[in-house]
Structures are given as structure tokens and as C-alpha cells.
Amino acid sequence: MIKIAYHPIYAHPLPQGHRFPMVKYELIPAQLLHEGTIEEHHLFAPEVTAEENVIAIHDANYWQQLKELTLPYQEQRRIGFPLDAQLVEREIRIAQGTIDGAIYAQQYGIAFNVAGGTHHAGSNWGEGFCLLNDQAIAASYLLRKELAKRILIVDLDVHQGNGTAEIFEKEDRVFTFSMHGDKNFPFRKERSDLDIPLADGTNDDEFLNILNENLPSIIKRHRPDFMFYLSGVDVLESDKLGKLSLSKSACKQRDQIVFETCIKHGLPMQVSMGGGYSEDIKIIVDAHCNTFRTAFDLFS
After folding, report:
1. Is the CB of residue 175 less than 8 Å from the CB of residue 214?
2. What pLDDT, on the 0 to 100 scale, is given for residue 153?
3. What is the 3-state secondary structure (H, E, C) of the chain?
4. Neighbouring C-alpha atoms within 13 Å toward the C-beta of 293
5. Which CATH number fits domain 3-299: 3.20.20.30, 3.40.640.10, 3.40.800.20, 3.90.1150.10?
6. 202-228 residues labelled b (16+ CB within 10 A) or e (exposed)
7. What is the domain partition of the chain in residue ranges?
8. What is the pLDDT of residues 255-265, one digit of tens each?
9. The pLDDT of residue 82
10. Which residue, 8, 70, 97, 294, is most buried by CB atoms nearer than 10 A?
11. Are 134 and 97 in contact (CB under 8 A)?
């Protein structure tokens, strides 16, 4: 059974006019339920994660400032959100949802977090709408609990997973792979184990060919026994922040390539949704829902 982490706090309200579409986190499970792709028993509501899971990855002082809402104003601006207690709770529930999903995936092959993909959060900073790095926290948990020995993190969001790259820069057991817009945020990139910078306007065939050429060889070289996948839909041509030119069909094919590759290699995987900033919220929700639809076709 495919399990999906979702909590109402994921749709935490932000000041009116804020460009980050928080409402998508409520609309994605609603659409999947409405169309019959999932049923209520597929969803689970994560608890808050333990502090030990956070500080295994993030600097204890940074976490203390988040928890006590004392993070300096300039650092809050870097995150892009006005900090409040509910937002911090949201992040630690997302982190636990990704941990729980990783554990479910080892039983069922795949699991999802409706939110997550907070890959810009580094060891001692938040950035780009990300306070804590959910997949890094979950990867660390699997390694510390000896539930995995070698992990692959595949980041196909349009923005480089700079926080993830920085966190695992010296961790040989975690291989970080990021395909992202070369001239897009973050403008100061960190170094993943494999970065593939993409030119503005990269189209369907270019993107899919690069993915097909690289993902199997990474798995062969690194030999992971678990995989995290960040499936941002800000690669779409319609995305106002993305700068790439993928169709919705190619975005779905991207997910299919990742899922089929994992099935072929017997790799359990956890999936977090990542970004999506098209003007039309229906495009964002449908593209994210395609990721779930594709997985249910292949894993059910």
C-alpha cells in the first residue's frame, strides 16, 4: 500500500499576496481523493519530529533560534517567510512525514510527502522558503538507525538542491544528484556529487535524454539501497520562476523514468513534492498529481 504524508498545517496561511502557493498542499490530496486515485487510508498525518533528528543535520544554535522565534530578521528575509510558531511546527511535521515515508517505502516500495523537498535549507541556514531540510533529516535518520547503508538523493526541481549538497558534502554514504537551471536561484551554488546545470529553455527531449543517460549510471556507480526523490514541477514551461521549457507530459515522463529505474534496481524510494509556481494553480496541482498517478499505475 502506498502511504502519503499529509497534515492540514501544510497549507499554513501566509500574508495576502505572498507568491508561494501554500494552497496547493490542500488541493493535491483533495484532487487525488476526488478522482479516486487514492482513498483516505492512503493518507497519514505525521507527528512533530524529535529534536535529535533535527540537530543530527542542522546546527543546534540555528534550530534554537527557529524554535524560539529569535532568528535574525535578515535570515528570515533569506528564507522568504515571516517566521511564526505554526510555520516551525509545519516544518518539523514535514520532516517526520518524510522519515515515516522512508520507513513505509522500505515495506511498500514507495511513499510520498505532499509537502517537503525543502532542499535549500543547509546545516545552519534557511533559504528559498525552506527552514529545515526534510529529505536530509530523513536520510540521516536511516543511516543512524542502520535502516540504509548507501543513499541516493535525486533532485529534479528546477533549483539546485544547495542545502542538501552542503549538508552531505563530506558524507560518502549519500550521493547527491541535481539537475537544475544553471542561471536560476540559488545564484551561489553548492557542489553536489553530480550537478547538471541546464540552459534556459531546455526542452522535453533534452531534459529526458540527460536524465536517461545519467540516472542508471549513478545507481550502478554508487550502489544505493535507498533513494529520495524531489519531484518539483517548476521545470514546466508555464512556471513563472523556472526558465525551462518542459511540457506537462514530459514532466510526467520524468517521474516515470525515475520510478521505473527504481523498480528495475529494487530501490525503495521516498518522494517529496518540491516547487511549482505556474500562474494557474490548476496547472501546479495537476502536474503534482501526475506524480502520484504515475506511481499508483506502477506500484499498485
Report:
1. no
2. 98
3. CCEEECCHHHHCCCCCCCCCCCCHHHHHHHHHHHHCCCCHHHEECCCCCCHHHHHCCCCHHHHHHHHCCCCCHHHHHHHCCCCCHHHHHHHHHHHHHHHHHHHHHHHHCEEEECCCCCCCCCCCCCECCECCCHHHHHHHHHHHCCCCCCEEEEECCCCCCHHHHHHCCCCCCEEEEEEEECCCCCCCCCCCCEEEEECCCCCHHHHHHHHHHHHHHHHHHHCCCEEEEECCCCCECCECCCCCCECHHHHHHHHHHHHHHHHHHCCCEEEECCCCCECCHHHHHHHHHHHHHHHHHHHC
4. 17
5. 3.40.800.20
6. bebebbbeebeeebeebbeebebbbbb
7. 3-299
8. 999 999 999 99
9. 84
10. 97
11. yes
- Look at residue 146 in the predicted model and tell me its pLDDT: 98
What are the tens digits of pLDDT across the range 9-44?
Answer: 999 876 665 556 688 999 999 999 999 999 999 999
- pLDDT, one tens digit per residue, over 149-158 is 999 999 999 9
Residues 6+ away with beta carbon under 8 Å from 274: 116, 117, 119, 155, 157, 230, 231, 232, 233, 234
pLDDT digits (tens, 9 = 90+) for 192-248: 999 999 999 999 999 999 999 999 999 999 999 999 999 999 999 999 888 999 999
Largest CA distance in the chain: 48
